[in-house]
Design brief:
Blueprint: E1 12-14, E2 25-27, H1 32-46, E3 52-55, H2 58-67, E4 74-77, H3 78-87, H4 93-101, H5 139-154, H6 159-182, E5 184-185, H7 188-199, H8 210-223, H9 233-242, H10 252-255, H11 263-279, H12 281-287, E6 288-289, E7 292-293, E8 296-298, E9 308-310, E10 331-338, H13 341-350, H14 353-358, H15 364-370, H16 377-389, H17 394-406, H18 408-422, H19 440-449, H20 456-498, E11 521-525, E12 529-535, H21 539-557, E13 567-572
Parallel strand pairs: 3-4
Antiparallel strand pairs: 1-2, 1-3, 5-7, 6-7, 8-9, 10-12, 10-13, 11-12
Helix pairs in contact: 2-6, 3-4, 3-5, 4-5, 6-20, 8-11, 11-12, 13-18, 13-20, 15-16, 16-17, 17-18, 18-20, 19-20, 20-21
This protein binds a DNA duplex through residues 229, 231-235, 248-254, 270-271, 273-275, 277-279, 301-304, 306-320, 337, 341-342, 382, 385-397, 471-472, 474-476, 478-479, 482, 526-529.
Length: 578
DNA sequence: ACACGGAGCGCG
DNA sequence: AAAGCGCGCTCCGTGT
């Protein structure tokens, strides 16, 4: 853990090798790095379970350790765990109230994380405590919170599940820091080639790339408006109307339905503008250094438990730029993504035998077609997405009832989650992460709409917002449990990779910067996809580890379930767009 | 000068 | 009308 007391000490709590409670050993500041390194090495030598370090939060402490070459195998992240426990319905009321009362730990996203540079160490923070946005800095406060959390978990309705969640969430905290430190191997020359091919050569600062200028001129010509600003939706919409194109918005899907000489160049311009502003040369200059793109990952950044990211849009890298992801010389990218993770998670959670059978191949949607529910894969996909998201209109509204007959257990699970949400209730993932309670304004609007004097407009609005919330809770249980599966997958994979031998120094992964790793390591994560950067000699072993970890995650979360989690896995030098 | 919401689009 | 979930980022336009 954590920060400085008034006297200026820094301390870390070592939970003990078996993860059980014992007297926590508080590590003194002067020996912090040495103590962590020593305990970790000691456990490795003995082959015993590694210690679990308890700290305020990983981004405050781990980058410094990592920069000094010290890795931590396990931790308990007080801040992340606090967030889980303060909402979890598994926690008994009395302790939950205590947790909720400790508001100083309720810091949703770590402010300052963006500024956390990889090279910063624990000891750089002169002049008092690190400014870690409100997370308590005193060791006593951390020990108290740790004690509360342990009591909340031990006395909960399902300690075993909550412990899994806490371990997975904390492992995610370590992985996020390690991913940032490792960075994504990024080939700026390839990135520049893609930009140049699509936009024209890099323009002088403040100028528009040549191809964009050309295409914009085509649009203005076709619309007969030589001064039109294409970047203002309002002005563009007016110009479209003047040209007789009857659209309600300027969005791509709607434009595509019209025939007019302006449409094709406009769609092309939008695509170009997006690439330039979101991932153009400016992005490259800001985010890629020494051959690595280092985004900030935010574990638990989404209410469902998914990760968010901050800085550079790590989770939104366009597939168009995937070829810029390139392994170091002599290294490989081992990329794997799970086929239809969310529906599989639903099938396993619900114990839906028929849906498990449909997913027995590698393509669950094909399995649904084979089961005779729908005629085409596209229909299967639209139907399943409608089931997960609460679709009622169009094709999905037509197909979902059929899925309800064929997969009654799976559909009952999501339908009940939706119903609970509509009533203002709380739903939980498999491991016990619970949805936030409704906004007080939401609740009061629902109550008011039931008064006899409520108008129909008020009733409609209330019903609509009830259904909105129902769709949220419907999706919450699946998206959140899928996130738990993915964390378990990565946690297992991370430990497996850590046991790989180191390759000789001259083969290490370092791009043009400092050596980061001498063995296969995680380099990217995106909800249901991982990329491992591995020495060529370890690529096959890494691929096996990825598959074995996926199997392990399935067994851990769904023991005895027939549902499997097949991967699409490729070993390449350069990531390719799908 | 800055904050903020909406539009639009990238990802799953 | 992108039908139906969750995000981040950039831009514009408005409000202060």
């Amino acid at each position: 853990m954590t920060g400085r007391t008034a006297e200026g000490e820094v301390a870390l709590v070592d939970l003990g090798p078996d993860g059980s409670r014992g007297a926590p050993q508080v590590v003194e500041p002067s020996g912090l790095l040495a103590a962590v390194a020593h305990r970790e090495a000691h456990a490795a030598e003995l082959g015993s379970a590694p210690p679990r370090w308890v700290w305020s939060d990983a981004p405050a402490w781990y980058p410094g350790l990592l920069a000094s070459g010290t890795r931590v195998q396990r931790c308990h992240d007080l801040r992340l765990v606090h967030t889980v426990l303060r909402h979890s319905q598994l926690v008994q009321d009395k302790v939950a109230a205590e947790i909720r009362a400790a508001e100083q730990w309720d810091v949703p996203v770590h402010p300052g994380t963006e500024q956390q540079s990889v090279g910063a160490t624990l000891f750089d923070m002169d002049g008092g405590s690190p400014t870690r946005g409100g997370v308590p800095q005193r060791i006593e406060a951390a020990l108290e919170e740790f004690d509360r959390q342990q009591r909340a978990i031990d006395g909960s309705k399902d300690p075993a599940r909550l412990r899994l969640l806490v371990a997975a969430e904390s492992a995610g905290a370590l992985i996020a820091v390690e991913l940032q430190a490792a960075g994504i191997p990024w080939d700026v020359a390839e990135h520049d080639r893609i930009l140049t091919a699509d936009l024209g050569p890099r323009p002088r600062p403040g100028h528009t790339p040549a191809l964009m200028v050309e295409v914009a001129a085509q649009v203005r010509e076709a619309l007969g408006d030589p001064m039109l600003s294409l970047d203002s939706p309002v002005k563009l919409l007016r110009a479209l109307h003047r040209a007789g194109i009857d659209v309600r918005s300027t969005s791509r899907w709607e434009l595509a339905e019209h025939q007019h000489p302006a449409i094709q160049p406009l769609l092309r311009y939008k695509k170009m503008a997006r690439l330039l502003t979101a991932n153009g040369w400016a992005w490259m200059d800001e985010w890629v250094h020494e051959g690595r793109y280092r985004p900030v990952y935010v574990p638990g950044g989404v209410v469902t438990g998914r990760w968010a990211s901050s800085g550079g849009g790590a989770l939104q890298i366009p597939r168009q730029l995937r070829p810029a992801l390139r392994a170091d010389p002599g290294w490989r990218l081992v990329s794997a993504d799970v086929s239809q993770l969310e529906p599989r998670v639903l099938a396993a959670m619900a114990g839906d035998r028929a849906m498990a059978r449909a997913g027995a191949g590698t393509d669950l949607y094909a399995g649904i077609v084979a089961a005779g529910v729908v005629a085409t894969r596209q229909e299967a996909k639209v139907g399943v997405l409608g089931a997960l998201y609460g679709g009622t209109a169009g094709d999905s509204g037509r197909i979902v009832p059929r899925l309800r007959r064929t997969f009654p257990d799976a559909m009952r699970l999501v339908d009940q989650a939706a119903e609970t949400g509509e009533r203002g209730g709380t739903v939980s993932t498999l491991l016990g992460r619970s949805s936030p309670p409704p906004d007080p304004a939401w609740t009061s609007a629902q109550l008011h709409s039931h008064r006899p004097e409520a108008g129909t407009a008020e009733q409609d609005r209330a019903r609509r917002s009830a259904r909105d919330r129902g769709r949220f809770t419907r999706n919450f249980v699946v998206q959140g449990t899928a996130a738990e599966w993915a964390l378990s997958w990565m946690a297992a994979l991370r430990l497996a990779l850590a046991s790989f031998d180191e390759v000789p120094l001259d083969q290490a992964a370092h791009a043009s910067g400092p050596v980061f790793s001498r063995r296969a390591h995680l380099a990217f994560f995106l909800h249901d996809e991982v990329i491992v950067h591995a020495p060529a000699s370890q690529a096959d072993a890494a691929a096996r580890a990825i598959r074995e970890s996926a199997d392990a995650a399935g067994r851990l979360l769904f023991p005895g379930s027939p549902v499997d989690f097949p991967l699409d896995l490729v070993i390449t030098e350069r990531s390719s767009a799908k």
